[in-house]
Every structure is written in C-alpha cells, then in structure tokens.
Automatic annotation (TrEMBL):
It comes from Acanthaster planci. It comes from the Eukaryota. This is NHL repeat-containing protein 3-like. SUPFAM superfamilies: NHL repeat (SSF101898). The keyword Signal applies. Keywords: Glycoprotein, Repeat, Signal. The keyword Repeat applies. NHL repeats lie at residues 186-225.
C-alpha cells in the first residue's frame, strides 16, 4: 500500500499536458557559426532569393554576411569603412515593378557615409544614400540623421525611420516613395508620441506603425497614413525594455526582444484597426545569460525568425512549432 501514492504521482505527471511553445531553436543554423567574429546586430531576409543577411561589427571584419535559408555561407560585403561604417538595422525591399530586391541598412557610424540610411544590391554595391553623409544633424531639409536606428518599408515603397539610437534625435519619420518627408513625430520625452531612444520600427499590415521606445520601456502605435498617436503598451515590459519589434509572418503576434533580460516575447497583435487594447504575452523564450538579443528579422515564406545577439556574437534561427 505504501507504493500507491508514488504510482498516482507518476501517472499524474506522465499525463499532464505541457504548454507547446510557439517557436523552437534551429541548432543547425548557420552551418558554421564561428564565421561571426564580432557582435551581431541585425538580420534581413530575402524570401525571393532564399537568403539571409546578417550584420556584424568589428575591426576589419565584413560588415554583412550572407547565408542560405539552410545556413550555408554564401558571400560577404567587403570591409570598406568609408562605405559601411557601423550597421544597426537592416531590411529587404522588393521592387514591385522589376521584382529586384535591395538591402537597406542604417549606418550609425561617424565614417564618410555615416549617419545615413542606404541601399545595396545583393552583391554589396551601394545604390542610394539618404541623409547628409558623414554629418549628424536634426534638419529635415536637407534630411539629416544622428544614430539612425531602424527602418520599415511598406509594399509600395514608403519608408518609416526611427532616429536615433542615443544621438541628437528622438523621432519617427515617414518618407514617401520619392524619399521626401511625408510627416515626422516625436521629441525627447516621456509623453504620448515622444521618445527616449526609438530603437526599432514595424508596420502591422492594417495601418499601424509600431515603435520600440526603448528607454521609456514601451511600444507606441501610430497611424501609418497620418502619424497620429494611437496608443502605447507598457505592462509587458516591466522586466526589460523592448529593443526590437517585428510582425510575425502570419500577422498574429509581434516579436519583441528584451536585451537586458535576455528574453524574446511574443505579443498578440490586435487585428482590428484603431485602438490597440491591452498588451498580451502569448509566449516567451528565455535565453541563456549574457546573450543580449538585439534586432530580429522574419521570414515571410516559412515563419522563422532570426535574431542578432550582441554578447554571444551570433545569429540564431527560431522556427515555428504551432
């Protein structure tokens, strides 16, 4: 009779239902992670070509490495500090007319082409520079940036820029398809529509722009067409401020990194236009100590996401489970 409680306990344990995680790590990506030699800041996914761009920093190291979806190393952009000084954010844009893709990145360095947003061909050829190259500033005409952090691109070529990552500016700027300023919002502050280090930006597909307002510990939402403030979330970030915000491939949730907490949050994305409601965490991934997850890139083809990790000097891939 003494064994009965033990049998009951084991039976209960074996048939309990554990929560199925939303994502799991792909331990085999990339093929040989030792290729990273500096802190990894960001990634971008070219779903059309099946390629992943990963940025890193370091003395005389390639600033951008390119991999296949399967983790094979393909090529890199050459070390040219006068062309790319210090990469922060990256995005892929596909031209609706030609079908060609370009890599857009933000350069927060003080080099010849620093404090700019610029585009490159898949081979690493510089195509366009936005901002006043090599000169930090706050003007809109001519356009100037300082520590420009991240960009988001709409399908028709509108660009949303958060500027900056600790510099002179704390603002969100929308550029039209001709790269002219359509509107801008924000100054340094804690009130609604103000920022203290706007670090990442994302579009949610139903007319909202989301900004990871890092040092204020919140996500803010704005109307994509006018820039009007919609609302903010703070309750999800009591244990670590948001560094990156990206929309999942199925548009059901936002993927948010918390660098200091070494955590990745999956937050329900409100699918009705207008008010954003409450912040609801669906799931999370607790990484090992001193990983420091930074900016994220999402594959639209398979739903996987890639996260640049500063302290770990790595880029990791997470794949959907449910």
């Amino acid at each position: 009779m003494e064994v009965v409680p033990v049998i009951v306990f084991i039976s209960s344990f074996c048939f309990s239902r554990a929560k199925i995680p939303m994502y799991k790590l792909d331990p085999w990506w990339p093929g040989f992670p030792s290729i990273f030699t500096g802190p990894v800041y960001s990634a971008a996914v070219d779903d059309q070509k099946g390629e992943i761009y990963v940025s890193q920093r370091g003395e005389k190291v390639p600033p951008v490495l390119v991999f296949s979806m399967y983790g094979d190393y393909l090529r890199s952009f050459p070390f040219e500090p006068n062309v790319i000084n210090m990469v922060h954010g990256m995005r892929i844009f596909q031209n609706a007319t030609s079908g060609e893709t370009s890599l857009w990145l933000t350069d927060v360095g003080n080099g010849t082409l620093g404090h700019t947003v610029k585009s490159f061909s898949s081979a690493g050829t510089l195509e366009r520079v936005l901002g006043t190259a090599g000169k930090a500033g706050s003007r809109l005409a001519p356009l100037q940036f300082d520590q420009v952090a991240d960009i988001a691109l709409s399908r028709d070529g509108e660009m949303f820029i958060v500027d900056g990552d600790g510099g002179l500016n704390n603002r969100l700027i929308k550029l039209d398809r001709d790269f002219q300023v359509a509107w801008h919002r924000g100054v340094n502050g804690t009130a609604a529509g103000q920022f203290h280090i706007p670090h990442s930006v994302e579009l949610d597909g139903i007319g909202r722009v989301w900004v990871a307002d890092r040092m204020n510990g919140r996500l803010q939402a704005f109307k994509q067409d006018t820039g009007d403030f919609i609302g903010e979330w703070t309750s999800c970030f009591q244990e670590g401020e948001p560094y990156s915000v990206r929309l999942s491939a199925d548009h059901t949730h936002l993927i948010v990194t918390q660098l200091k907490a070494n955590r990745i949050l999956f937050i329900a994305s409100p699918r009705q236009p207008g008010v954003i409601g409450n912040c609801t965490v669906l799931d999370s991934i607790q990484l090992a100590e001193d990983i420091q997850p930074h900016l994220v890139a999402v594959s639209q083809s398979d739903g996987a996401f890639y996260v640049g990790e500063l302290a770990a000097k790595a880029c990791q891939k997470f794949v959907r489970v449910t």
